[in-house]
Design goal:
- It contains 10 helices and 7 strands.
- It has helices at residues 10-16, 19-28, 35-41, 47-60, 85-88, 102-114, 119-126, 132-140, 163-168, 180-187, and strands at residues 67-72, 75-80, 97-100, 117-118, 144-149, 157-161, 237-240.
- A hairpin with a 7-residue loop joins strand 5 (144-149) and strand 6 (157-161).
- The longest helix has 14 residues, at 47-60.
- The radius of gyration is 22 Å and the shape is elongated.
């Protein structure tokens, strides 16, 4: 610090003491921490100091190393670098978790690329008679939600992805989705060709006053929570490896 003019160095000193605090908070949090949450956790600290410390911390993690800070769903997470995942997976070789079936992943991809979209439109793109059982699974896992009604006869519910979807797939927002071809390669199976076609985004109607249900009723009197004949609910989960 320059004794004749200490002011220029003071902001850096103030933000430097916040760096290890921010690093610990982001590392320990099970979900991405947004700037708003960090401001709240560091109540009493000037926001400009928090911002400066966060910028400095991100710069530190840009250097070569095993970890990086990424923006996910509008927040920050400390994660392992993608090029090291093949090594990290060895630690979790014996650990299993529930993973989505091929049918569920395909349905989720249709919703992600075509949202907002109705159950009938999803089934048409997939070339199946119904996606009801799969939709119920995705709603239950908080990967999709109903966002309104389409302005057509019957006013069917429309589906879109959630913040949990962004977090699970490491996306900051929906514009970070890869090209359909790249997604097909990553999933290991071919996605419907219609996903690559431009979408016309319809305007959904607002929900009824009593709020939207978790699953939309079908015109045949059933519900999307019913399991489609060609996609048993028991197929929705199988063991998989998890990498943090």
């Amino acid at each position: 610090m320059n004794p004749m003019n200490p002011e220029p160095d003071e902001p850096r000193a103030m933000s430097d003491h916040l760096k290890p605090i921010l690093e610990a908070l982001i590392f320990a949090s099970p979900e991405p921490l947004t700037p708003k949450t960090l401001y709240k956790l560091l109540d009493g600290e000037p926001r400009e100091d928090v911002d400066a410390a966060l910028a400095a911390l991100k710069a530190d993690y840009e250097r070569p190393g095993g970890l990086q800070i990424v923006e996910v769903a509008g927040g920050y997470q400390i994660v392992t670098r993608p090029e090291l995942h093949e090594w990290v997976r060895k630690i979790f070789h014996e650990r299993t978790t529930s993973k989505l079936s091929v049918q569920a992943l395909e349905t989720l991809a249709v919703i992600a690329y075509k949202q907002p979209v109705t159950a009938a439109e999803i089934a048409e793109i997939r070339g199946v008679s119904s996606s009801g059982g799969v939709l119920a699974t995705l709603v239950e896992r908080r990967l999709i939600k109903t966002v309104g009604r389409k302005q057509v006869v019957g006013r069917p519910f429309m589906y879109a992805t959630t913040r949990d979807f962004l977090e699970r797939f490491g996306l900051n927002d929906i514009t970070d989705l890869p090209k359909v071809e790249e997604m097909s390669d990553a999933l290991g199976f071919e996605l419907p060709a219609a996903l690559a076609e431009p979408s016309v985004m319809p305007a959904p109607l607002p929900f009824d006053a009593e709020g939207a249900p978790e699953a939309a009723p079908r015109q045949d009197g059933g519900s999307v929570e019913e399991v489609a004949p060609d996609e048993p609910a028991s197929d929705e989960s199988t063991p998989d490896e998890t990498v943090h």
